[in-house]
Design a protein that fits this description.
Helix content: 55-70%
Low-confidence stretches: none
Shape: rod-shaped
Number of strands: 2
Radius of gyration: 49 Å
Bound molecules: zinc ion
Strand order of the largest sheet: 1-2
Mean pLDDT: 86
Strand content: under 5%
Number of helices: 1
Length: 133
C-alpha cells in the first residue's frame, strides 16, 4: 500500500498517488514543487521589477511635474519682480518730474522777486507794474 503524500507547501495530507495537493493545488513531488516554486519566484521577481519600473516612471513623471511647477513659480516671481521694478522706476520718474516742476516754479518766483526789487530800486523809483513780462 502506498503512503499518503504530504504537501511540501501547506503540509496537507493527500491520498496516495495524488500528484497535486488537494488544498493548495501545488505539485506533490519534490522536483515539480521546486520547479513551480522557482517559476513562481521568477514571476514574482518580474512583477516586482515591472512594479519598480512603473514606480520609477511615476517618480520621474512626478519629478518632471515638480520641476515644471517650480519653473512656473520662478517665472511668476521673476515677472512680479520686473513689474515691481517698473512700478518703482515709474514712481521715481514721477518724483523727479514733481521736483523739476517745483524747482522751476521756485526759480521763476525768485526771478520775479529779483525783477521786482531791481525795478523798485531803479532810477526814479518806477512802480512795480513795469515788469517786462
Ligand atoms: Zn498543499
Amino acid at each position: 500500500m502506498e503512503e499518503s503524500a504530504f504537501c511540501l507547501h501547506c503540509e496537507t495530507e493527500n491520498p496516495p498517488g495524488a500528484r497535486f495537493c488537494n488544498n493548495c493545488g501545488r505539485p506533490l513531488d519534490l522536483v515539480s514543487y521546486i520547479a513551480e516554486t522557482r517559476w513562481t519566484d521568477r514571476q514574482t521577481q518580474v512583477a516586482r521589477q515591472r512594479g519598480g519600473l512603473a514606480a520609477l516612471k511615476e517618480e520621474a513623471e512626478q519629478a518632471s511635474q515638480e520641476r515644471m511647477s517650480r519653473w512656473w513659480q520662478e517665472e511668476n516671481e521673476r515677472r512680479q519682480a520686473i513689474a515691481q521694478a517698473q512700478a518703482k522706476k515709474r514712481r521715481q520718474e514721477q518724483l523727479v518730474l514733481i521736483i523739476a516742476v517745483v524747482g522751476a516754479v521756485v526759480v521763476l518766483m525768485a526771478l520775479l522777486l529779483v525783477a521786482l526789487l531791481v525795478n523798485r530800486g531803479g532810477p526814479g523809483g518806477v512802480a512795480p507794474t513795469a515788469v517786462p513780462w
